[in-house]
Structure formats: structure tokens, C-alpha cells
Design a protein that fits this description.
WH_DNA-bd_sf; 38% helix; 2 domains; four-stranded antiparallel sheet; AsnC family transcriptional regulator; 152 residues; alpha+beta; 6 helices; 4 strands; Arc Repressor Mutant, subunit A; Alpha-Beta Plaits; elongated; transcription
């Protein structure tokens, strides 16, 4: 992996296996000093190696049991403004710009079908959005993971 040495990779593999491991536990597992692990963790964090820890929070207990993906088609010159407005919708938990026929793939959580209809309507009401296609997520079959890449 570019930018990470063997110690960094070992630390990342250990964190992928146990994301809640303390610095002391990681130091023990990797046979390193606590100070070395702490310094490496700080450097990795400062370099942007870690994604948002919000990713680990389950929206279901918060009252949002349904998840959907909204494919958004926009007028290209208005893409930036559309993204800014979509980001203001609290139920939007992630969005990706895409190449191809769809411009944005927006991941949303909702309370029920009526809530999803409302959210889709909010997206459609944004100036520059031409149309949407919404797909209800039936279940996560492969959760977010990097372990196999780290093991490679």
C-alpha cells in the first residue's frame, strides 16, 4: 500500500479486526511500545487514514429502520448547488458523484415509505434536479470492510 509502512499496515490490520481496541491493547497485540502505537495512530489520523466514526452508528435505534438509494439526475452546471442543498437534508447519510447516466447516488434513511416519499420530494424540489429513481435497500449483503484489502 502506498504511503504506509509495515508498522502502519500492521496497526491498520489490528484495527480492522478490533476497531475498539485501546492503544494499550494494540501495543500489546503488536509487541510495540504504547508510545510508538500512540504516535503512529496520531500520524495516521492526521493524514486522513480514518473515516468518520459516525459510520459505525446504526440509524435503526434512532428511528430510521429503512434505507434507500436515490439516483439523481441533475443539470450539470448546477451540480455543486444541488449537492449543497442535498447536504442540508438530515436523512441524507451519504452521496457519491457518478460517471454514466446517473449524476449522484444518494443514500438516505427514513422512518417508513411515507417518509421516503417526503425525502424524495425534497430532493426533487431542488433547483437543478431533473429526476430521481429511488430503490429501497432490502439488506446489506457485504458490509463496509477493508480487511481483505489490508490482508492483500
Amino acid at each position: 500500500m502506498n504511503g504506509y509502512d509495515a508498522v502502519d499496515r500492521a496497526l491498520l490490520v489490528a484495527l480492522a479486526a478490533d476497531p475498539r481496541a485501546t492503544v494499550v491493547a494494540l501495543a500489546d497485540r503488536l509487541a510495540m511500545s504504547r508510545n510508538t502505537v500512540q504516535a503512529r495512530m496520531s500520524r495516521l489520523e492526521a493524514s486522513g487514514a480514518f473515516l468518520s466514526f459516525e459510520r459505525s452508528i446504526d440509524p435503526v435505534p434512532l428511528g430510521f429502520p429503512l434505507e434507500a438509494f436515490v439516483s439523481v439526475h441533475v443539470r450539470q452546471k448546477e451540480l455543486s448547488a444541488v449537492v449543497d442543498e442535498i447536504a442540508e437534508i438530515p436523512e441524507v447519510i451519504q452521496a457519491h458523484g457518478l460517471s454514466g447516466s446517473v449524476d449522484l447516488l444518494v443514500r438516505v434513511v427514513c422512518r417508513d415509505a411515507h417518509d421516503l416519499f417526503r425525502i424524495d420530494g425534497e430532493i426533487l424540489a431542488i433547483e437543478g434536479v431533473e429526476r430521481t429513481e429511488t430503490s429501497l435497500a432490502m439488506g446489506e449483503l457485504i458490509p463496509f470492510r477493508l480487511g481483505p484489502l489490508l490482508d492483500r
